[in-house]
């Protein structure tokens, strides 16, 4: 590694992070009226949550956290009716925090007419990721050089309320609208029944909490077709049918067939169980995946999760041949920072049979140690240990540490560890400096590399 990269690593490891302490603003309890308003607006897709798109609805939020979401919603606009009234009330309630964020509240009422109109009633938001990468060994991966600046991602999101209970959403990504769908809530007058039609995202594992570092095995992609979901009391039943999925080489044929069904039981606030199935016929080759996952919450912020997977793969499948129904399982202990006080913690162990097809590339920091393409088979029996810890020191600074080890029967061990420092400069602008070290990879036991990444993340 040259001197410049050594200096960057030293800077990463020695940046002073403010000492951990209480947030400068008090918590907003879950039963507070403002919390309910935020949750309702988030459920409608009007109010954007954390940078990864989630809303942490199972814990109290700080006034500062709610204020940052309100500030983002004020800048976006496109509200009317009851939703606009909720925003007005939130602006009044969180005026001190909004002003601390540099948001001018005075004269807000005079701007409401413009806010109500938005852009023809459309709500427009977006995100951008801009990276600088420095590698010890500048390798040609994914068909391009990896060193230097990279415009990692740019996306625009469109949302419009059409009539009562019916909305339209779309996403612009990679020079095209890769997602566009209608949502009809309380479909056919049945409360709790939701219909989606178009090209939409589905990720049932993420819905059940397996999305740490994009570590889901299946889905996390867009499907073109219809999805029907019914939630009532303690159970949710959902099914979809599609003829197109994603944009990779295995799924580009519009005449392919994709089906899925799941049944989830929320037996109590402590225990849930989900049973899921995926069926696909890709270029006349059949592939089926079944899994059950469950979670048990010992207390608020402390949960044990587990999942067991089975696959039924046709011998002549274009995805993989000569496989005898591979299986996999995983277990994870998830601890929120509210429990440990100084850090959150995710500890996971997984076992994957040779020939098991993974639609995603879980755990890997840069998709280098673990294969970087979709719909790949595990080349050998693999055991995985993944540990992630994150510390939120205050409303600006955070740190992350990750470690993953792949124990592969025929290749040997592959290891990867990384550390990162994050700085939330404003509610819309986030910076992260990260270092990752890789030792071995899925097809090369002698692979040895390290990476420095400086990421700029903008939302609006």
Question: Could you give a short description of this structure?
Answer:
With about 450 residues, this protein is of the alpha+beta class. The chain has 8 helices and 24 strands.
Q: Provide the CATH topology of the largest domain.
A: Porin
- CATH homology superfamily name of the largest domain: Porin
Number of strands: 24
Low confidence ranges = 7-25, 113-117
Instruction: Measure the end-to-end span.
Output: 37 Å
Q: Indicate the overall shape.
A: globular
Which architecture name of the largest domain does CATH use?
Answer: Beta Barrel
Regarding CATH, which class of the largest domain?
A: Mainly Beta
- What fraction of the residues are assigned to beta strands by DSSP? over 45%
Integer average pLDDT: 80
Rg over CA atoms, rounded to whole Å, is 23 Å
Tell me the major beta sheet.
18 strands, antiparallel, barrel
**Count the helices. How many?**
8
Q: Helices and strands: which structural class?
A: alpha+beta
Tally of discrete structural domains = 2
Q: Helical residue percent?
A: 10-25%
What would your notes on this structure say?
The strands form 4 sheets. This protein has an 18-stranded antiparallel β-barrel. The chain has a two-stranded antiparallel ribbon with strand order 1-2. It is of the alpha+beta class. Helix 2 packs across helix 4 (81-93). A hairpin with a 2-residue loop joins strand 23 and strand 24 (444-459). It is built from 8 helices and 24 strands. It is 15% helix and 49% strand. The model is unreliable at 7-25 and 113-117 (pLDDT under 50). The chain folds into 2 domains: 31-121, no CATH class; 122-459, Porin. The radius of gyration is 23 Å and the shape is globular.
